[in-house]
Structure formats: structure tokens, C-alpha cells
Amino acid sequence: MKIGILGTGIVGQTIGSKLIHLGNDVMLGSRMPNNEKAIEWTKQNGSKASHGTFAQAAAFGNILFNCTSGAVSLDALNLAGKENLNGKILIDVANPLDFSKGMPPSLTVCNTDSLGEQIQKSFPEVKVVKALNTMNCKLMVDPSALDEDHDVFMCGNNSEAKSEVAAMLKEWFGWKTVIDLGDITAARGTEMILPLWLRLMGVLQTPNFNFKIVR
Question: pTM of the entire structure?
Fold first, then answer.
């Protein structure tokens, strides 16, 4: 499968490398075609790895990941272009964190709206599925790195897209429990987990933890 990843940071690179390991063709997208991080990542990941602009990555992928910084996600998606996004599944991993005033960060949007909702409103023909945004990127692609089972949340308006994403999370990344929280408004809750997650990381002195719902 061809997969386009918007964003060249550690999250996009980690997801992209895992997907290549599974046999997919992956293009990392950034603002500029000569992004140094993307060039180095491509060199390290062989013939199935490539890089380009946001628009090129969006056009390339059958499925897309938004791994950009949440504060610039809408700008990045606008650069990707509706013509390259429409009709496709976009797995939104981004969080609207604002570090401009240092730690702890604030959220640029919360309570009555979310980044996931803003993306869906701005791109109504895109099948936005919010997922994987409540954990460290290493756990996103390898939940077995923790000794016990733990959960991944997702939400979105398109039930078929969510079914496809849930299958991918299980078959490709090894997730056992995918909890569907409903429509895209549930992104308000999963994005607002991040301030708690960051506090826990500071207390635990590691990012290698996750949430499990005990019933």
C-alpha cells in the first residue's frame, strides 16, 4: 500500500519506518521538498521510502497520516491541497499543544472544539479518524513494548473508515483493544488527555506508559 505521512518529526518518522518494515511504500511530506530530516530518513529506510512536499505526499498516499505539530496542522493540510486529500482516510495523530510559553503547554483549542473537528470541518470530503494521539510514538507502532495490554482510542464520523483503521491498528501495529469513542467530537476528550499525559511523563520519568480501561 502507498501511505503518505505529513510531518517529518519523530512521530512521522517512527510510523513511517514501521510501515516500511511491513512492506508498504511511504512518502514523508514537509513544507519544502529538500527537508533535511526527510532526506536522511529516506536514506535510512531504503527503496520503499521517499520524501516530498505536503502536496506530493498527500497525492502519493492511499491512506494518510497527519503527524504535523497540531499548531500548524491546518496550514499543512491546506498546503497538501483538497484535491489530494478528498475521499481519503486521514489518521490524525496530532495534538493542539502550544509550547510558546514553555512548560506546561496549553491547548490551542479545547472544551467546545478540537483539532480533529477543525480538520473535519475544513476538509469535509476527507475521512478523518483521530487515533494514536494519547501515547508515545514508540508505543503507537509497538504496543507490546509494555508488559501488559493497554488501549488505543479512536473517533471519527465515517464508520467504514474507522473499521479500516481499527483493522490496520490491530494487524499492522499489534493493538489488541481499539476503543471507538464515537464521532469526531470525541477528539475533544482524547486531545485533552495530553496535559495529564505530560504530567505523568514528568512524574514517571519515562514516556513508556499508556492508559488501560478496566471494566
Answer: 0.95
